Amino acid sequence: MFSLAKLREMLTWRRGVVLTALLAISAVAVAASDEFASSSSRVAKPVYAEGKGDKCVKEESYMRRHHMNELKHHRNETMRKGIRTSQFSLQGCIDCHADKKTNSVLGKDGFCQSCHSYAAVKLDCFECHASKPKASKVIKAMPNQSVQTGTESGIATELQLNTYTETVEPNTTSGASK
Amino acid sequence: MAGLAIAPGVTLFDLAHGRAPEEAASSKVRWGMLIDSGKCATGCDDCVAACGKENGFTGSRETDSQWIRKVEIKDLRSGQSHSLPMMCQHCEHPPCVDVCPTGASFKRADGIVLVDRHICIGCRYCMMACPYKARSFVHEELHDQNPDVPRGKGCVESCTLCVHRVDNGGQPACADACAGAGHNAILFGDLNDPSSEISKRVATLATTQVRADLGLNVGVRYQGL
To answer: What residue numbers bound the domain in which A156 lies?
Structure first.
């Protein structure tokens, strides 16, 4: 015959076992769901399309981490001082990384947007800046200007003898990109 | 165009124009324009159209920006009339810069007055301060901007003296268009360089600053007013 005390003791022991078992099962379940999420993610992976150039202006690992700082620094230099070097110019990024199909860095597979969507970082550059490369990469040079104008030095020298109006004319966006 | 021909098809321009990309704009240069109202044709708006084409607005929408406009003025007594373009006068002491609460409105070392849209909050105080009504507010979202001319909703903007062209050794689109149409009413150049065409003309001809009484020492001058 069991005493009342012994019965109570047994029940608490059983409860303990049940609780432990439940905990173990839920832990396994959580681990399994983690594994599930990483294998078939709900968020689309960013697209690292090949750029048009041979290599980036700096190592890719550096650019992934610091491109925003470099762009911000460059924008202030260009805006305030008129320094228009090509290394960290946003236009340079777009020229190289624009999607071959859409000709843009935006869109689902766009170089900028796909990664920013993945990282959930708002991308507001393109509310003002064009997301497409220049329609025609013509360097505007005054006649006889011997200074390189930033991008392709070869073309700059070639253009030296052209008349000014000829080199400037085709360089508008709205008309050309439509 | 301001320049000296040294061989057929080769023209020598003032050195200030050939600035290297890594070189900052210098205060040794003061960009300016001289507009000859005698040559500016009544009814012609080639400069306005060229500005819109270059910078990405057509004037077709009511809310479109206006960086340059044609003004017709008439002396009622004599009947004498003038036609002239009016735009940001690129003041030496710009009121828009004085009032800007964020520092977005600024004057570059070479005298070009600009808006840094990255920090413009769109308060439009500068629009009220400008005696020339030169500034516009962008009311609607924009698309397909010129890669050289970033513009967007919520910012104030005005004539940039086509700074992207000037930095590459060119001249503003309006001056190009005016010369292209054969009027040659707009002369662009460096006011600080005594050998430039604009300086020579400013030194020898009677030129006017609009609202000279304000003492702003504008960069855009008018001839024949």
So the answer is: 135-178
